[in-house]
C-alpha cells in the first residue's frame, strides 16, 4: 500500500491495483502548484465533506478519470445534479465492500456545505480495510470521544488534521492518537492558509515525546504504509 500526499487533506492511496484519492484540493493550493491535477486518474474519490478546500477539484478529477465518488448521501445527491451519476452514497456508521476492500464511514465533528451553498449532510471520516491493513482518514474534525470507538480496530495508520483553528491542532491530535490506539500518524490539513500554518519541528517533537511516529511528507512525496 502506497500513499502520496498532494497538500492540505488530499492524499492518494494505491492498494490492490486501485487508486483512492481523498478530498481533492490541488489547483487552488499555492503550495501544490507543481502538481498537475489533470494527471490524476483515480479509480475512486473519497470525499469527507463539502467545503471548498476538500472538493475544489472534485468535478475536474471525476470527469477526467470517471472515478466512483464515495461520500455522504447528500453529496452524492448534489453530484447527480452536476451530471455525475457514478457516486456511492453512504452514511455515518455504515460500511460497504468495494473491489479494493471495505470502507466504513465514521463520525467527524465539523461543518459541511457545498461551495454553492447546497447542504452537504454531515462531515465524515473513513476507515479503509485493504491488503490486511486498517487505515483511518479522519477528515476535518475536532477531538471527539467517538474516536474511542476505533480503539479496538488496531489501526495501522491514521491521517489526522493538525492545523488547528478549523480542526484539531497538534495537542488534540496527540490525544486523538491515544483515543484511536494508533501510533503511526500522517498529518493533514495544515500550512495551506496562514491560520493553519504550524511549526513542523515543534509539532514533530511533541509527537515524538508522546511516543508517536509522525510523518509530514512533502507535497508530491510518496510513502509505503
Uncertain spans, ≥5 residues at pLDDT below 50?
A: none
Order of helices and strands: EEEEHHEHEEEEEEHEHEE
Count of alpha/pi helices:
5
How many independent structural domains? 1
Radius of gyration (CA) equals: 16 Å
The percent range for strand residues is 25-35%
Mean pLDDT: 98
Structural class: alpha/beta
In CATH, what is the class?
Answer: Alpha Beta
For this structure, the CATH topology is: Metallo-beta-lactamase, Chain A
N- to C-terminal distance: 6 Å
What share of residues is helical?
Answer: 10-25%
Tell me, what's the shape? globular
Protein name: UPF0173 metal-dependent hydrolase I5M19_10805
Family: Belongs to the UPF0173 family.
GO molecular function, one term: hydrolase activity
Domain Metallo-beta-lactamase: 7-189
Description:
The chain has 225 residues and is an alpha/beta fold. It has one domain: Ribonuclease Z/Hydroxyacylglutathione hydrolase-like (Metallo-beta-lactamase, Chain A, 4-Layer Sandwich), CATH 3.60.15.10. It has 5 helices and 14 strands. The strands form 2 sheets. The protein has a 7-stranded mixed sheet, with helices on one face. It has a 7-stranded mixed sheet with strand order 7-8-9-10-11-12-13. β2 (11-15) and β3 (18-22) form a beta hairpin. The radius of gyration is 16 Å and the shape is globular. The mean pLDDT is 98.
Amino acid at each position: 500500500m502506497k500513499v502520496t500526499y498532494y497538500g492540505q487533506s488530499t492524499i492518494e492511496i494505491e492498494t490492490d491495483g486501485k487508486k483512492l484519492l481523498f478530498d481533492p484540493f490541488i489547483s487552488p493550493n499555492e503550495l501544490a502548484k507543481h502538481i498537475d491535477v489533470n494527471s490524476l486518474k483515480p479509480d475512486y474519490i473519497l470525499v469527507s465533506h463539502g467545503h471548498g478546500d476538500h472538493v475544489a477539484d472534485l468535478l475536474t478529477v471525476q470527469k477526467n478519470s470517471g472515478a466512483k465518488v464515495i461520500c455522504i448521501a447528500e453529496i452524492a445527491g448534489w453530484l447527480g445534479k452536476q451530471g455525475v451519476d457514478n457516486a456511492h452514497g453512504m452514511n455515518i456508521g455504515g460500511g460497504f465492500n468495494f473491489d479494493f476492500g471495505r470502507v466504513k464511514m465514521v463520525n467527524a465533528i465539523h461543518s459541511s456545505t457545498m461551495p454553492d451553498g447546497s447542504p452537504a449532510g454531515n462531515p465524515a471520516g473513513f476507515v479503509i480495510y485493504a491488503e490486511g491493513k486498517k487505515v483511518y482518514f479522519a477528515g476535518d474534525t475536532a477531538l471527539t470521544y467517538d474516536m474511542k470507538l476505533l480503539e479496538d480496530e488496531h489501526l495501522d495508520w491514521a491521517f489526522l488534521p493538525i492545523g488547528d483553528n478549523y480542526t484539531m491542532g497538534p495537542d488534540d491530535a496527540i490525544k486523538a492518537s491515544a483515543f484511536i490506539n494508533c501510533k503511526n500518524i500522517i498529518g493533514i490539513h495544515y500550512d495551506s492558509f496562514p491560520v493553519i500554518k504550524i511549526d513542523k519541528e515543534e509539532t514533530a517533537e511533541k509527537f515524538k515525546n508522546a511516543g508517536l511516529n509522525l510523518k509530514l511528507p512533502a507535497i508530491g512525496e510518496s510513502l509505503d504504509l
